[in-house]
């Protein structure tokens, strides 16, 4: 079976909603995916930097470390 989205891609999708529309539910969903699956944090950091959301990514990163 071919995988359409990686867990990292799913987290990016949910964080996009959080970054652009301050969707707190999307942040919670991104955190739930990150708790259950391995996420490529380097990829996520590069993506957030390219999108101009490094500071908002920190909120996600702080919460997954708890």
Describe what you observe in this structure.
This protein has 4 helices and no strands. The chain has helices spanning 7-21, 24-36, 41-51, 54-64. The radius of gyration is 11 Å and the shape is globular.
Helix-strand makeup class: mainly alpha
Q: Shape from CA axes?
A: globular
Number of strands: 0
Query: What are the segments in which pLDDT stays under 50 over at least 5 consecutive residues?
Result: none
At a glance:
This protein has 66 residues and is an all-alpha fold. It is built from 4 helices and no strands. The chain is globular, with a radius of gyration of 11 Å.
Which key terms come to mind for this protein?
66 residues; mainly alpha; 76% helix; globular
Spell out the blueprint of helices and strands.
Layout: H1 7-21, H2 24-36, H3 41-51, H4 54-64
Helix pairs in contact: 1-2
């Amino acid at each position: 079976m071919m995988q359409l989205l990686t867990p990292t891609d799913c987290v990016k999708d949910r964080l996009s909603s959080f970054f652009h529309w301050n969707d707190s539910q999307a942040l919670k969903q991104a955190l739930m995916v990150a708790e259950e699956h391995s996420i490529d944090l380097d990829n996520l950091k590069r993506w957030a930097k390219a999108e101009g959301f490094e500071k908002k990514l920190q909120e996600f990163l702080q919460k997954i470390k708890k």
